[in-house]
Amino acid sequence: MIERSEWLKQMREKAETIYDLWAPMCGFETDEDAAKARVEAHVQYLEEFIRRVPSRSNVLSAGCGAGRYDGMLLDAGHSVVGIDLSERLLVHARKLYPTIRYEQMALQEMSFQNEFDGAICIEALEHVFPEEWPVIVHGFREALKPGGVLYFTLDTSESDVSLNESYEQAKARGLPAVLGEVADEVDVAFEKVIAAQGDVPDEVSDKAVYHYYPGVEQVRTWLDKEKFTIEAQGAGTFAWGSDNAFEATYEHFVVRKR
């Protein structure tokens, strides 16, 4: 069996390759294009976040991708720093919002110190390994000023049954997976995506990237350990993919550094 550390390294490299490949399809020509791609429930909680940070705040957009939600922060009068693992996605973000400082940086590599009044992380944490979740939550705490506000989304789309099935299938394939990870089909789906240069059905593309679903209560425990107080929390669902054939459910957290 492959060592877990080596396996996770491969998962991260595959994710970076996939998102670099998808970058041309994920970019936006105008802020209006980005606005049309925003998810209604995400917008609702992002507005909740914006109401809770001071005017003209310095805000971190972590896992920002091509900058889909960054225009809302600029429109609210804030200064923004964006970080993402995919440099090719950041190329699109820089073209769309040239006043924002974008840096290639993984979430677990954050080393900011008391720099931001607020931070957001939308549709990114589902690709974080269980070992790195506490590191990242701590990184957000360190990045925020006292009383700083964090808004993030937690993917809750997978049922306990499907998570158990993925875990058993991963073990059967000799993968060093833990319960909550969905990665049993990553290698096969990844090769299909690369061979087709990204032109694959949605059900294949989604399986080509590692996912981890820690559950709401586990996340609440990590937040409490890092002394974050939950100020708003709720679920939101949206359809995606061809003909809206897939449904994704997210738990939304707006928390404040104590």
In short:
The protein has about 260 residues and is an alpha/beta fold. It has helices at about 5-25, 30-35, 40-50, 70-75, 85-95, 135-145, 160-170, 185-195, 200-205, 215-225; strands spanning about 60, 80-85, 100-105, 115-120, 145-155, 180, 210, 230-240, 245-255.
Topology:
Blueprint: H1 4-26, H2 31-36, H3 40-52, E1 58-62, H4 70-75, E2 79-84, H5 87-96, E3 101-104, E4 116-121, H6 133-143, E5 144-155, H7 160-172, E6 181-182, H8 186-195, H9 202-207, E7 211-212, H10 216-225, E8 228-240, E9 246-257
Parallel strand pairs: 1-2, 1-4, 2-3, 4-5
Antiparallel strand pairs: 5-9, 6-7, 8-9
What does the largest sheet look like? 7 strands, mixed
CATH architecture: 3-Layer(aba) Sandwich
H/E element string? HHHEHEHEEHEHEHHEHEE
The top level CATH class name: Alpha Beta
Number of continuous helical runs: 10
Low-confidence parts: none
Gyration radius over CA: 18 Å
| Distance linking N and C termini | 43 Å
Strand order of the largest sheet: 3-2-1-4-5-9-8
Q: Kindly state the mean pLDDT as a whole number?
A: 95
Please give the number of β-strands.
9
- The CATH H-level superfamily is Vaccinia Virus protein VP39
Structural domains: how many:
1
Helix residue percentage: 40-55%
SSE class: alpha/beta
Anisotropy-based shape: globular
- What amount of the residues lies in strands? 15-25%
